[in-house]
Amino acid sequence: MWCYRHIIQNPPIPMTSFIDSVKRRCFYKQKSLLSRIVLLVILYSWTSASVFAQSASYSVMEVVEVEFKSQQQYSNPYMDVDVWVELQKEGSPGEVYRIPIFWDGGNVFRGRLVATSPGNWTWKVLDETVTKSDRGFIGKSGAFSAAIADVSSNPNNRGFIRVAPNKRTLEYADGTPFFFTADTSWSALTAVFGFDRANDISGISFKDYISARKKQGFNGLNVIASFPDDTYLEQLGRNLDRPGKERGLWSSETWGKKIAPNGETPFELKTRGQSVTDKLAEVDYQKIDPKYWQSVDERMQFLSEQGFVTLFESIRRHERWPFRSQVEKNAFYNYIRYLWARYGCYNMIFSWVHHDTNSGNVYPEWLKLVSHANSELSKKIGGYKMPYGQPRTAMSYNTTLKNWERDIPTALDVQNVSNAERDETMHSWLRDIYYAGATKPALNLEPFYPGWGLHSGNEINPGMDDTSMAQMQMYGSVLSGGLAGHAWGDAWYAGAATSTGRSGGATIVAANDPQISALNAFESQAMGHLKDFILDSGHDYSYLVPAADTHLSDSQDYLHTLSVSKDNSFALGFFTADSRKNAKALPTLKNFQASKTYQFQWWDVTNGGWVSSENITTSSSGAMKTPNVPNNDRTKGWAYRIRLEGLVDEDDVGTDETDTDTDSDINFALRINSGGEATTYNGDTFVADTYFDSGLPLNRPQTGLDDPFKRFRFSRSRVMNYDIPLKNGDYTVKLHFAELWFGATGGSAGGAGKRVFDVSLEGVLVEDNLDVFAQVGAETVLTRAYTVNVSDGQLQIDFSSLASDGGVRHPIINAIEILGTQEEVPPVANGKEEALPGLVGHWPLDELNGVNAGDVSGLERTGVLQDGLTFDKDKVSGQIGGALWFDGGDGHIRLPNLDDNLQAGFSVSAWIKPNNAEGGYQGVVGSTTSGGFMMFVNQGKLGFKVTTNESGSRLISEGVVKNDVWQMISCTYDGSEMRWYINGENVHSEAFSGTLKDRSEAWIGWSGWGNEYFEGGIDDVQLFSNALTKQQIFSLYEEGDFYTVSGSLASKSDVSIDSIENLTTKITQPAYVHPNPTVGNFRITGISEGEKEIVVADFSGHVLLSLKTDEAEPELDLSGYPDAMYIVNVKQNGLEWSFKIIKE
Asked: Signal peptide position in this chain (predicted)?
């Protein structure tokens, strides 16, 4: 968490030098975070000019706050002091910035400085901007250095966003594309939200709301800086938008609450005798109140730290500011300067004014205010720009081409459409902006708002609903030229829902419904998938040109949208939903390259990811017939991509495909470094990659992994093979995968569904739709093990990501191990793993119902689910069969006494899938924190506590625990040393001695203290009465990692290794369920005739269908069940198949 580095300037004293205290000030802090004191030496000359000595290095993009104390008296410091600081990097003439300072109450002023690149920086007060020869400012200067920032922790550390050189898109200062993906909550900087605690208005704290939106893929927030007249706007006659009514702004729960949490308003109110145009109370736009803005500080800082960029609007157009005296009008310059001084240190798209309507024709007067401020600021800065160059815009009622861009183009770096029409008309406006004379990026700031009233142009098109209408605007706006990004808005735009009356008196969102409800409404999470679609590494969206009118046979007035590259080599498009029975046929595609083969891919707008593809050859005129949408489902919108055959992404790094003869010399242990040369790992030799039939190698050393895992082989053709000569017999084959591109250092954006492929051994499908990122994330090794019988002198390994197999992108393999029978993985008997020595507790958590968690260790240490936790409602799919989901509330499992016979040492292990790994202490399993032991997740790390009779307690958190992926955490204690393991790897060891202090109670999902409850999934908890070795822990991990929900040869059922071997030799072709996804009926094919037992269950383990049939291709019907993902299990003659099927 970045805090402001705070430098205090004190009045000079008659000494040649002295030590001045410099505080590191945080506007908020975690409970465990303490403010720290930094000392800097300040040198003073006899002329009273002060110079800051070089300090310890800061980081690029870290805010360095310099404090000044004026030595003169000012009647109105906000208006009277207009001091600017010049910041410059040594040896870099192009990095010079002019920054205004701001008044923060009393005689205190502050400047917020940011180093934009590593190096040494100096700053000085521009003395010509100082009035009254104020020695609090005159001659002040300083220096500091900046080091490279960690961009992996916060994308804002990439630098200030700016208009890209193509003038169509935005980018960070390091050149990384930035696609604004914003939510809208205009009042979010005010008391409508509690900062870290929920209130009755929004129902969720500001921090929790932003964190939730971040998880959904948002990276921005639309806000208005202040609402000066909110405390009296609801008085009769004050709200000019509602003449003659007592009505405030937006939802009634927010009236008078758009102020600071402590009650301060952004400006003071006028007193009697002052110039007043309307009546008291009335805002004094010349007297700002710093206390209001101090509460805004912590929210803006938090947004920046979460990687968010704001659309930061100064004020809403209903304010009477433009109709006050000329002196007050001119004060709009002071206000903008104040905002830039205080918050210009953050990434933002600045908006001069929230001009959302032409009501009362207020635009001409606001134009005068903006023009004056723009002119005055340009004189100070030396150009029409923000101090650090962030893009500027001004919300337009309709399109900026009709107002701001036409009248004051120097005030805009980005154009926009907003608020009017809210349908496909906005797409035509964005197209007009794209083809306008001045080339500037554009975006839609206020599109259709789902759940809002059917008024103000917010009506729904025929054949659509709120969700599909919003999605049409999302994709349609971007693909019509709005390449800078898109803003989501809905009925909760004020922090609580506004009145949402619909035709016929229907209301779908209750007035004043709290903002928390917006998180799961109208598929708003699909905005994250829009960003993924646009930024997908398989294309460069910056080359797109709006083409709905030239490349679609009938766009229906931009209802359907399309953008193409200038050379017609690729295109992105969107077909809008139409649920009517007589839905109009989709348009055909035209004017592509003639007689060329293109790959056509569908994108799932709601869930993200490429769902299917096919190759289409254009006609001699460049036309292609539009394929049917998946499942012929026109009730939802579908995005798509068209690329000339052969266009790829990863292979841009330059690789050479090579054919190499295989080596027929074999041993009982053959290890291959796929994509690399010979290497050694953990004492084992991995030979060079010479057994492949196809594919390309790629080296990714920047990911930090060691050989053989930092390299991989992939295939442009989406299929690749290994043919490895072996003696006939049984082998254990271990395949090692690591996602080193999507979500990895120097790669592309990560996410489930970015790479999906199948793996077959000897013609048998062993991995169906394997998604490495979804399993373990990026830069982490995923190992799968299989038993295979070779009977033809050659092991064949096939990889496929063909669309016909359900694949996405290129298949990968990092390393292969082929082991003789003496090195096989531990056998499985009677459906259970052979227990390692000392097993004294094993809770698989596989029950389908009830509240008892059975112990299969034989010691009958049954756990009891507490405080509402049940298998019936909290069952989820786990790493090994089923698992339990803990919501972070008070649900947990109570265990009997576990500490008996553990005094000399123990090991504890569990598979977990955290939902809030970055949170505080969350107990996973143990015997309380006041004695015995406990294993935690804490602030993204694995916590382990041991309490002994002799040495007291030791609690340390180490390693990296990730959100939303299954990982095995293990801890051991042998009486003299504690060890931490994640996914079988020893991440920390700590000397500690003594015998374990016995406790009579134990828990799963809770530490036994306060609110330290676990949030996420827990599976397969095991306890041992001895300290397992590193090899045993890794073996335990491999056994657990051997299982998978679908597509593996092993599952947590009554299938032994012998059965698996039989399966390998008996099955000659894989089985399928199709169509998949389905809208109801589906068929099972590929399984031989004979009686089959079929079970269909949901991911909670509830059985929906169970039947026996001898049909060769049985057909089942899910039309009566909700849209969701289901598991289909088929058994026949001791063999078992498992499939995932999606019902939409």
From this structure: none
